[in-house]
Amino acid sequence: MKLAIVYDSKTDNTKKAAEWIAEGMEKVEGVEAKAFHVNEVDEAFVTEAKGLVVGSPSYAATMTPDIHNWILSNGGNMKFEGKLAGAFATQQYTHGGGETVIQGILTIEMVKGMLCYSGGGSFGKPVIHLGPVGVNDNMEKHNGMEKYKDYFVIYGNRFAQKATELFK
Ligand SMILES: Cc1cc2nc3c(=O)[nH]c(=O)nc-3n(C[C@H](O)[C@H](O)[C@H](O)COP(=O)(O)O)c2cc1C
Which atom of ligand 1 is nearest to the CA of 95? Predict the structure, then answer.
C-alpha cells in the first residue's frame, strides 16, 4: 500500500521531518512511503496512495503559500477524498505556531473529504495530539530537529498502522 507525504521546505528541516515520517511508515509491512517536495510531486503516486500527510514550516504561524496553493488547487485530480490524512510542521521557536499550521492543514484536508488522523492518545505515550512539530536550532540552541526525530518516526508508524487496518 502506498502512502504519500507532501511538504514544503527551503532549508531542509521539514524535508528531514518528512523523511522520518516515511521511515516510520515503512516499518509497517507492505507499506511503500514516499516524500515529495511540493514542487516535485509525483501525482500518479499520490493518486494511488491511501494516505496523504502534508507538512509545512511555520511562516508567521501559518502554512507556506506554496503548500496552501497546492492543497487548495488539488483534490479530485489526485483522489484526495477518502484518503487518510495527516499534517506536521517545523518551526524555529518553541512557541512558533506549528500547531496552528497543523490545524490549518487539517481543516483543508477535511474540506477535501479526507479522513484526518493523528493517533491522538490511542497509542499511549508519546501522545501526539494533532500532529508532530519539530523545533530547529536556528534561534534556540537547546533545541534541534534531531531531538524530535522519534516523534516523527512514531507518528508515521501509527499513521501507517491505521491506514493498513482501514484499507488493506
Ligand atoms: C517567512 C518566514 C516566516 C517564518 N515564521 C516563523 C514563525 O512564525 N514561527 C517560527 O517558529 N518560525 C518561523 N520561521 C522559521 C521556519 O518556520 C523554520 O526555520 C522552519 O523549520 C524552516 O523549515 P525548512 O528548513 O523546511 O524550510 C519563518 C521562516 C520564514 C522564512
Answer: 11
Q: What domains does the chain contain, in order, with CATH numbers?
A: 2-167 (3.40.50.360)
Q: Per-residue pLDDT tens for 116-137? A: 999 999 999 999 999 999 999 9
* Ligand 1, atom 2: closest residue by C-alpha: 59
Grid cell locating 90: 517545523
Distance CA 57, CA 11 (A): 10
Q: How far apart are CA 123 and CA 106, in angstroms?
A: 20
| All cell numbers assigned to 84 | 487518510
Question: Within 13 Å of residue 36, how many CA atoms lie on the same side as its CB?
Answer: 17
CA atoms within 13 A on the CB side of 7: 29
All three cell numbers of 73, joined, read 488547487
Ligand 1 centroid vs 135 CA: distance in angstroms? 10
Distance, in Å, from the CA atom of 70 to the CA atom of 85, rounded to the nearest integer, reads 15
Q: pTM of this prediction?
A: 0.99
